[in-house]
C-alpha cells in the first residue's frame, strides 16, 4: 500500500529542492559520523535535516500520505543508534555484543517506530519477489564471485587495508571473522536498502534516492575498514545493490549477492593475514 502512495506522490509533484536539502543533510551526517568521526557534528546534521523537513511539512506530518519528516526521522534514528559505537573491526566477545546491539537496534528501532508509532508500515523486508531467478540473476552471482576474486585481493593487500581487520590466525578467530563478515553483510541490506533507500524512494526519483543511500552505505563501510581507495569499489557496489533491489524487489537476492561478495572478502582477509593458507588468489 505504501508503495502505491509513494508512487502517487512522486507522480503528482515536481522535484522539491527543500525536501532534497533536508534529506541530503540527514544522509550527509553519515560521512561526518563515520568518516570524519565527529559525532556531535553528525548528530547536529541529523536534527537540522529532520527539523527542515518538519518546517516544510508543518501540519502535514501526520497526513496519511508518506511524510518526509517521519521518514527522515526513521533514518536519523537508525544512524544515531549506529553512531553510539566504534565501527572498528574487532572479534572479541564484547565487540561482537556491541555490534549486535547497535546494528540490530538501527534496524529494529526505525521498524518499530514506523509500525507502531507512525502506523504507516513504511519499512518491510520482502525476502522473495515471487519470480524465479533467471539467467541474468544467476549470471550476476557468478560475475560477483569472479570480479571479487580478481579485484579484492589486489585492493586489500596492495593498499594495506587488510590490517584494519584483526589478525586471524586460529580456527576460533577465523570462525568469528566468518560470522562477523556475513552478519554485517546481511545487516547492510536490511538497513541501507530496506530502510534508508526504501524510505527515500517514497519521496524522490530512484536515481536520487539511490545516490543518497550510497552516501550512507559507503560512509559506514569506510569506518568499518574499507578505506584508502575503497570507495572506488564500494560506491558502485552500493549503487548496484539499490538498482538490483528496485528491479527485483527481493531482499533475498540482494543478500545473496552481498554474501557472495563477503565470502570473497573473508577469504582474502584470511589469505592476507596467513599467506599460503588459502592459495586461491593471484596476489
Structure description:
- By secondary structure, the protein is an all-alpha fold.
- Helices cover 72% and strands 0% of the residues.
- The protein has ten helices and no strands.
- It has helices at residues 2-12, 17-34, 39-57, 68-82, 93-118, 135-159, 171-201, 206-224, 231-248, 251-273.
- Helix 3 (39-57) packs antiparallel against helix 4.
Sum this structure up briefly:
The chain has 283 residues and is an all-alpha fold. Helices cover 72% and strands 0% of the residues.
Describe the SSE topology.
Blueprint: H1 2-12, H2 17-34, H3 39-57, H4 68-82, H5 93-118, H6 135-159, H7 171-201, H8 206-224, H9 231-248, H10 251-273
Helix pairs in contact: 2-3, 2-4, 2-8, 3-4, 4-5, 4-7, 5-7, 6-10, 7-8, 7-10, 8-9, 9-10
Rg value: 19 Å
What is the count of DSSP helices, taking H or I runs of 4+ residues?
A: 10
Based on helices, strands and strand pairing, what is the structural class? mainly alpha
What does the overall shape look like?
globular
* SSE order, one letter for each helix or strand: HHHHHHHHHH
Spans of at least 5 consecutive residues with low confidence: 1-13
User: How many β strands by DSSP?
Assistant: 0
Distance between the termini: 50 Å
Please report which band the strand proportion falls in: under 5%, 5-15%, 15-25%, 25-35%, 35-45% or over 45%. Answer: under 5%
Arithmetic mean pLDDT? 92
> How helical, in percent, are the residues?
over 70%
Biggest sheet descriptor = none
Amino acid at each position: 500500500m505504501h508503495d502505491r502512495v509513494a508512487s502517487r506522490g512522486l507522480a503528482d509533484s515536481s522535484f522539491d529542492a527543500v525536501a532534497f536539502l533536508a534529506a541530503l543533510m540527514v544522509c550527509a551526517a553519515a560521512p561526518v559520523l563515520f568518516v570524519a568521526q565527529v559525532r556531535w557534528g553528525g548528530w547536529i546534521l541529523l536534527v537540522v535535516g529532520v527539523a527542515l523537513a518538519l518546517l516544510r511539512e508543518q501540519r502535514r506530518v501526520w497526513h496519511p500520505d508518506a511524510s518526509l519528516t517521519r521518514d527522515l526521522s526513521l533514518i536519523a534514528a537508525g544512524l544515531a543508534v549506529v553512531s553510539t559505537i566504534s565501527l572498528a573491526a574487532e572479534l572479541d566477545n564484547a565487540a561482537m555484543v556491541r555490534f549486535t546491539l547497535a546494528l540490530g537496534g538501527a534496524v529494529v528501532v526505525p521498524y518499530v517506530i514506523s509500525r507502531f508509532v507512525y502506523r504507516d508500515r513504511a519499512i518491510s523486508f520482502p525476502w522473495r519477489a515471487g519470480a524465479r531467478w533467471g539467467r541474468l540473476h544467476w549470471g550476476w552471482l557468478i560475475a560477483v564471485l569472479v570480479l571479487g576474486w580478481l579485484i579484492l585481493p589486489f585492493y586489500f593487500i596492495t593498499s594495506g587495508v587488510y590490517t584494519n581487520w584483526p589478525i586471524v590466525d586460529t580456527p576460533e578467530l577465523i570462525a568469528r571473522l566468518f560470522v562477523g563478515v556475513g552478519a554485517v553483510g546481511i545487516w547492510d541490506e536490511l538497513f541501507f536498502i530496506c530502510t534508508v533507500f526504501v524510505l527515500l524512494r517514497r519521496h524522490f526519483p530512484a536515481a536520487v534516492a539511490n545516490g543518497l543511500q550510497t552516501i550512507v552505505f559507503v560512509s559506514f563501510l569506510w569506518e568499518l575498514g574499507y578505506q584508502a581507495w575503497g570507495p572506488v569499489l564500494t560506491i558502485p557496489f552500493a549503487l548496484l545493490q539499490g538498482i538490483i533491489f528496485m528491479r527485483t524487489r527481493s531482499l533475498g537476492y540482494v543478500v545473496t549477492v552481498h554474501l557472495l561478495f563477503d565470502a570473497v572478502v573473508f577469504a582474502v582477509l584470511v589469505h592476507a593475514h596467513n599467506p599460503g593458507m588459502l592459495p586461491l588468489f593471484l596476489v
